Amino acid sequence: MECPFQEVIPEEAVQGFFKISDSLGFVGLRIKVSMRLFIFFIFLFTSSISYAQLRLGVFAGISNYQGDVVQTANVLRFSKPAFGVTGNYEISERVTLRGGLTLAKIAGDDKYNVESVRFRNLNFQSKITEASLIGEFNVFNVNNIKWSPYLFAGVAAFHFNPYTIDNSGNKVFLKPLSTEGQGLPGYAKPYSLTQLSIPFGGGIKYSINETTSIGLEVGLRKLLTDFIDDVSTNYADEADLFAAKGRQAVDLSYREDELPGGNLSYPSKGSQRGLAVRKDWYYLTGLHLTFDLFNDKKGKRYFLSGKLEKKGYGCPTVPL
What we know:
Helix content: 10-25%
Structural class: mainly beta
Number of strands: 10
CATH topology of the domain at 11-161 and 190-226 and 284-292: Porin
Largest sheet: 8 strands, antiparallel, barrel
Order of helices and strands: HHEEEEEEEEEHHE
Shape: elongated
Low-confidence stretches: 1-10, 16-31, 296-320
């Protein structure tokens, strides 16, 4: 017997979701309106689908970064915690569409690089809030076998705000300083702190029981910006930067003079500071636990048609 589930989105649920999205994450991190709309459409989609196909997921792991400040994967040195929640919609027995909200942190310090750019003495940290919509493909049918490799790819919007620690131990956000002249007359436009990325990756999934599964996965984010670390192109003119942003901007744009024996002279305008042709990346590694939201009392999962996995049970009552 097919089960006619009613598709309802309570207004209180939408309002409650925004309250949660505002409060989750690291203190002081704000998401722009465009990102809130992105999250809303993900929630709208996952809230209006058939209950029989909806699974809730949680993610826990580590986050890492690779770019102008860290040019090779330093998995242990710069690893930071990452957490997330997902809503998973089973399109078929092998294909799942999932929307997620992830909170993470990334960091880097170029004094650990093996190349000559380590002498810049640049470093940064940034908190990340990411909303994603991803398609997931299981190689095997997880209803017939307990494990399966899987691949995923999609689109995401994320918010970041790079900062550093100055010589006095103070936390200083870097974008307002225009360290490469962004926003000054004759220089490039300021970069946005909310950007799009292309998430993709894979993992191995194991079914713990009929309602719960766990996956070990690695997800890379191909970014469309090169400023997640506030380093991308060339040094601005020292006089221009000082006149527009003050001494702190000059000091944090060029930090080799802080090193023992470092060059005390600020580089000439146009000298290479970063490498814009190589965009930045960040990636997440961890465990993704998913479980059915709506089951009968005996824990049997519903097929896409609304039928129970074993016959003899009627349509479940779905609380609104």
